[in-house]
Each structure stands twice: as structure tokens, then as C-alpha cells.
């Protein structure tokens, strides 16, 4: 094989990897913008197919910061500001415990149990005629949700489930759900990005991949917003509970595969 053939195949491989990464970013962003969460099911697990984890993880967080900032700018009127602030404050206290879980010998058992609990809650909410709901803000449960989100974020990089559970109990509208969760994810993701920067993981490669992703990410945010605004409350909740089932199953399967 000549030198020109080698260069051709190498460039073809690079372009294919770039197109795959951009497609992943687009789909993950649409899901995040439409539902307010869920991109964790797609972003990092698939991005590692075309780039190292040391690039994929900080890239996903940098994208998260940008998506959250755009959504907050779009729909700040729909934000439950006190709820978002309480969740963020409680999360800060949960992160250190999450890091302890990450280093615990029984972390896979914790992950499996968490997955089962999430699936049970979502399945009950889908099937029950009179599902649980909160008519007004419940401060202790709000703070507990934020604290658990911090634990999950510190341990598994997955803050979403407790926030989604609380939002579903409060019966936030699709617009309130989307905007309030992004008001939470904006400072939470900024803290995560500061952590990557302090660890030396925010590199030129991460910045380059991010800049390449922006032209794909921004239209995806607007497409997700259009989808979100077409949802009715009842249909939206069904999608939310379906997303929780997927997350719970994913956690349980990951725990089994790592344990084995």
C-alpha cells in the first residue's frame, strides 16, 4: 500500500469519526433540549467510540454547559428559580458522598439497587391511576432530591434521576421541566468543568471538538425546544417515566456487567 493510499484511508477514517461524533452530539442535544435530561444515555457511552474517554467526558460537560445556557436564555420565564437554587445547593453537599461511593467496594450493588428503585417508581407512575403528586413545593423532598443528585453525579456522573422524580411529582409543565432542569444543570455543569480544568483535562483537543460541535448543537437545541412545546402534560410525563425506566435498566445492566 502506497503512502497516498495510507493518507487517503487515514483521512477517510478521521472524517467518518467526526461525522459520527457530530451525529451523536445532535441526537443527544435534541433529547436534552426536548426533555431536559436523558443525554447521558447517549453522549459519553457513544462518543467513546470515536474519541478517548479523557476527551469525551469533558466534551460532554462543556456541551451540557452550553445547552443549559441557551435554554435558560430562551425560556427563563418558565424556571422555578427557588426550586433550581435549592437543588443546586443540596447537590454541592451530595457530591463528596458520591465520590466516596465511587471508591467503595460495593458500588456496583448500590448502582443495581438504585436502578431497581428508579424502574419501580417509573413503572408505578405509568400504571397507577392516581399517581403520587405534590400540590406545592415540598422543601425537605426538594433538598433530598438535590442531595441525591449530587451523590449520583459524584459517583456516576448522572445527576438527573432524582431531579426528574421531583419534577414529575410536582407536575411541572413540559416548559417548566425543561427550563428548571437547565437552570440546575448550568451551575452544576460549570462546577464539573472547573473540576476537569483543575485536573488538566480541559485540553486543546476538547476545545477543538467542542467548536466543531457547536454548528450541530445549536440547531438541535432549537429543534428540541420546538418538540418540547408540542407536548401536553400527560403525554410528556409518560415520556419522562419511560426515560426513567431506560436509565434504571441501564444502571442495573452496567452494575451486573461490571460485577461479572
Helix content: over 70%
Mean pLDDT: 82
Termini gap: 43 Å
Percent of residues in β-strands:
under 5%
- Indicate the overall shape: globular
Give me the strand/helix succession: HHHHHHHHHH
Main β-sheet: number of strands, strand sense, barrel status?
none
Number of strands: 0
Low-confidence stretches: 4-13
Give me the secondary-structure category.
mainly alpha
CA-based gyration radius: 19 Å
Q: Can you characterise this structure?
A:
- This protein is 80% helix and 0% strand.
- The longest helix is centred in the first third of the chain and has 33 residues, at 3-35.
- It has 260 residues and is mainly α.
- Mean pLDDT is 82; it is low at 4-13.
Give the topology.
Layout: H1 3-35, H2 43-47, H3 53-75, H4 81-102, H5 107-127, H6 139-156, H7 160-169, H8 174-198, H9 204-228, H10 233-259
List keywords for this structure.
single chain, 260 residues, mainly alpha, globular
Outline:
The protein has 260 residues and is an all-alpha fold.
Amino acid at each position: 500500500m502506497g503512502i497516498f493510499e495510507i493518507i487517503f484511508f487515514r483521512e477517510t477514517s478521521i472524517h467518518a469519526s467526526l461525522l459520527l461524533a457530530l451525529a451523536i452530539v445532535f441526537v443527544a442535544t435534541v433529547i436534552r433540549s426536548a426533555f431536559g435530561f436523558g443525554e447521558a444515555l447517549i453522549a459519553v457511552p457513544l462518543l467513546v467510540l470515536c474519541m478517548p474517554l479523557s476527551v469525551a467526558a469533558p466534551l460532554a460537560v462543556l456541551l451540557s454547559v452550553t445547552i443549559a445556557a441557551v435554554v435558560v436564555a430562551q425560556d427563563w420565564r418558565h424556571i422555578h428559580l427557588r426550586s433550581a437554587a435549592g437543588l443546586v445547593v443540596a447537590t454541592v453537599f451530595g457530591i463528596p458522598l458520591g465520590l466516596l461511593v465511587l471508591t467503595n467496594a460495593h458500588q456496583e450493588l448500590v448502582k443495581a439497587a438504585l436502578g431497581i428503585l428508579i424502574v419501580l417508581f417509573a413503572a408505578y407512575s405509568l400504571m397507577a391511576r392516581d399517581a403520587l403528586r405534590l400540590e406545592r413545593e415540598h422543601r425537605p423532598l426538594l433538598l433530598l432530591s438535590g442531595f441525591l443528585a449530587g451523590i449520583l453525579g459524584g459517583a456516576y456522573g448522572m445527576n438527573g434521576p432524582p431531579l426528574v422524580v421531583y419534577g414529575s411529582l410536582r407536575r411541572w409543565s413540559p416548559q417548566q421541566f425543561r427550563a428548571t432542569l437547565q437552570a440546575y444543570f448550568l451551575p452544576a455543569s460549570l462546577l464539573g468543568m472547573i473540576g476537569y480544568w483543575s485536573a488538566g483535562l480541559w485540553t486543546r483537543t476538547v476545545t477543538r471538538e467542542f467548536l466543531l460541535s457547536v454548528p450541530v448543537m445549536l440547531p438541535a437545541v432549537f429543534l428540541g425546544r420546538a418538540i418540547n412545546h408540542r407536548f401536553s402534560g400527560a403525554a410528556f410525563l409518560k415520556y419522562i417515566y419511560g426515560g426513567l425506566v431506560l436509565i434504571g435498566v441501564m444502571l442495573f445492566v452496567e452494575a451486573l456487567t461490571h460485577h461479572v
